[in-house]
Amino acid sequence: MMTFMGFSETIFLFFLALLIFGPKRLPEIARQVGKVMNDLRRASYEFRSQIEAEISHLEMDNKPLPSAQRPPGAIASLPAKPEATAESSGVPTQPVASSEPAAATADAQPSPDPETPQLKAPDA
Q1: Per-residue confidence (pLDDT) for residue 60, from 0 to 100
Q2: Where exactly are the structural domains of the chain?
């Protein structure tokens, strides 16, 4: 593998380049090498920043959302499948016949799902 050059190797390469290219062309070549090195460094930085941006974007997409806290005083929601909870608790799912008159039940709002019973607040 290539190791770092010492001071003596650097001076030797400088004199060798001076002999090969001459004193007039050496500054032009050094300027061109500097521009190429700057372009390569800039391209490397842009590539690295694009990769890091994509990685951070993927991490943001995969991050789970925080769970929503129920506000104080909120009413608990009903379970998703009331039939499954009723069967497991032994409570029958069939509506029970009531002794209330038919007019009182007519005031109740119709259920969006006929199988889901509507709960009614007691009269005060």
Answers
A1: 80
A2: 23-60
Joined together, the tokens standing for residue 16 give: 């060798």
| pLDDT range class, residue 59, cuts 50, 70, 90 | confident
Residue with tokens 């290219």: 21
CA distances for 32 relative to 40, 45, 78, angstroms: 12, 20, 74
pLDDT digits (tens, 9 = 90+) for 7-57: 999 999 989 999 999 999 999 999 999 999 999 999 999 999 999 999 988
Is residue 34 within 8 A of residue 26, CB to CB? The reply is no
Task: Find, among 70, 94, 93, the residue nearest to 83 by Cα.
Answer: 93
- Return the number of other C-beta atoms located less than 10 Å from residue 29's C-beta: 13
Q: Where are the alpha helices (DSSP H) in 1-124?
A: 7-62, 82-89, 102-106
Residue type at position 32: Q
